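## retry 2 of 3
previous attempt timed out at serialization; input unchanged, resubmitting
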Amino acid sequence: MGNHFKKKGIIVQAIASHAHAQNDKAECYIQTLEDGMQTLLADSSLSQAATFWGDTVLTMQYLCNRLPTSTLPANMTPYELLYGKKPNIDNLRVWGCQCFAIIPPEFCDKGGPHHVECIFVSYHEHHLGWHIHNISGKYHFSHDVIFNESLAGHLGRRHPPSSSNM
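## retry succeeded, writing output
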């Protein structure tokens, strides 16, 4: 593994056991993710149960890669450094908000619902769409989602808002 790192220009620095302060940048980034996770959970009406921790950390990582950082040249994002272009942030939504996944017409029963209530939980790095969590506890990835960002999602049953609220 050491030869592979050398070929790739990666410098490995050993640190003393239990000396987290020596691992400064990684520890700082982990702290940023943890603080963001706590903020997203606190801002939503969802419980802070471990159910959504992974989703919030993935969301924070997605957001941090699209925000400028002091470790890069002025106003540059990690995404921009990696892909050579500014990130598109048109898909950003309020984490934990209520949303409704549209059920494709071929799967709708006549007279049945055309959408299912969900909670927005994360993004997908290379696909246009969102990871959502429905009220029965299942995860889905969908592009056809109507967001109600003014209302936090929840795990109970609620009627959809009128189209004027979306």
